[in-house]
Design a protein that fits this description.
Elements (H helix, E strand, L loop, with lengths): L34 E5 L6 H15 L3 E6 L13 E5 L13 H16 L3 E5 L1 H14 L6 E6 L2 H7 L5 H10 L2 E4 L2 H10 L6 E3 L26 E7 L7 H12 L4 E7 L4 H10 L6 E5 L5 H4 L4 E4 L8 H8 L4 E4 L4 H4 L6 E4 L4 H12 L2 H19 L1 H16 L5
Parallel strand pairs: 1-2, 1-4, 2-3, 4-5, 5-6, 6-7, 8-9, 8-11, 9-10, 11-12, 12-13
């Protein structure tokens, strides 16, 4: 099991805060041009965001990338050079009680792979994508397709461990040519929950520092100050994100200082969260934004990110906040300790301990000098450890490794 070391970004000459990475299209930085298919969920979750950003960076580096999904990925509104998108058929059939998405996905993978002479299918989420990719590789043996599977979290912790899917998940992992996990926690959790023999590489999620403008926090000394701070939460509003805790933390902060809460996203807990905000009389202090394509612009308004999740395999939104110079108060679970340094770039607390998270929030926001120190440390941590210039080449190395392995 391999964990890729992190490069010191101060030694990386490619980082230029003034550079627009999309203004031009540089020559390939890797040794070989590759033809890669990427399959992911097109929604606002972390797996789809990372897969889409990876594909765009691979194209910038000279590779050809074909996205395969049932809808255009959220962050793929335009098709840059060397990128194409193919939509999986969703038509119904009178003899089928439920639509066989896995089979139409496999058929589309085969079709796209043959059209573009793909060498690699990189799937983000084990079920159903890895199983479909392995079947596609068997249907089109003339291509010698390699399958790289990236595990993102709930495909293992929720779906993969279910008796309904566990045998397929284990088979898909072991039959992939390479498997990566987005954190050490997820790698160990996969090995704990599943009986797999496959070596699993840890390749962290990443950010583009040039897309995030670090800002100076608006800390305030007391509730009577004319300045107002902004606490923010960004998620898909699933129960495990613990939106009630977000609101309760904010209520405690607002009792001590002038603050507002911005909730970004949507999902199953939206209605319950609105009801709780109304019950607590916080309607004038809480804003519901809905789903956004890019979080970097909206993070410019944040002074603190709240992420009291029940579990997080990595916590991409925490990393994106840190890249914008926004400290994070989160739970000490899953992969979050690998991202947020407790007491340095934010604070971590036990799940459900809203009093501790409110206390940490007040500590950061109530001390101007301390808030600036946390903001600088958060930005530095994101840039030093999770710059795409460091992470994307790790994926390229894995692609080149499996292409050099010969037959499956």
């Amino acid at each position: 099991m391999t964990e890729h070391p992190q490069e010191n970004p101060q030694e990386n000459p490619q980082r230029n805060p003034q550079r627009n990475p999309h203004a031009d299209h540089p020559q390939p930085l890797s040794e070989h041009h590759m033809r890669i298919g990427i399959c992911c969920y097109p929604t606002a979750g972390g797996s789809g965001v990372v897969a889409t950003e990876l594909g765009k960076h691979l194209a910038e580096r000279g590779h050809s990338v074909a996205f395969i999904s049932y809808a255009s990925p959220l962050r793929l509104r335009e098709l840059p050079p060397r990128i194409c998108y193919h939509e999986v058929d969703q038509e119904s059939h009178p003899l089928l009680r439920q639509f066989p998405h896995s089979l139409t996905l496999t058929a589309k993978m085969v079709e796209v792979a043959r059209t573009h002479k793909l060498q690699i299918l990189h799937v983000h989420y084990a079920i159903p994508f890895a199983a479909a990719a392995i079947l596609a590789a068997q249907i089109a043996p003339e291509l010698g397709l390699k399958v790289v599977t990236t595990l993102h979290g709930t495909d293992i912790t929720l779906v993969g461990g279910s008796p309904s899917f566990k045998p397929v998940t284990e088979f898909s992992i072991d039959k992939s040519d390479a498997v990566t996990a987005v954190s050490r926690f997820l790698r160990e959790e996969t090995l704990r929950q599943l009986s797999v023999k496959k070596d699993i590489d840890v390749v962290y999620n990443f950010i583009d520092p040039d897309r995030h403008d670090a800002r100076v926090p608006r800390c305030i000394p007391d509730k009577n100050s004319e300045r107002q701070v902004t606490l923010m939460h960004i998620s898909n509003f699933r129960p495990l994100k613990r939106l009630e805790d977000v609101v309760q933390i904010f209520r405690r902060v607002r009792e001590k200082m002038d603050a507002r809460l911005v909730l970004v996203g949507d999902g199953p807990e939206y209605g319950n969260t609105r009801a709780l905000v109304g019950k607590l009389g916080l309607e004038d202090a809480v804003r519901f934004v809905g789903v956004v394509d890019e979080v970097a612009p909206i993070l410019k308004a944040a002074d603190l990110l709240l992420l009291p999740s029940e579990t997080e395999s990595f916590g991409l939104v925490a990393l994106e906040a840190m890249a914008s110079g926004v400290p994070v108060v989160a739970t000490d679970v899953g992969g979050l300790p690998e991202v947020v340094e407790h007491g340095v770039s934010g604070y971590l607390a036990p799940v459900g301990d809203v009093d501790a998270m409110a206390r940490y929030s007040l500590e950061i926001l109530g001390d101007c000098a301390g808030a600036k120190k946390f903001a600088r440390a958060a930005r530095a941590r994101a840039v030093d450890a999770f710059d795409y210039n460091t992470i994307v080449p790790q994926y390229e190395a894995i692609y080149e490794r499996v292409l050099g392995q010969g037959g499956r």
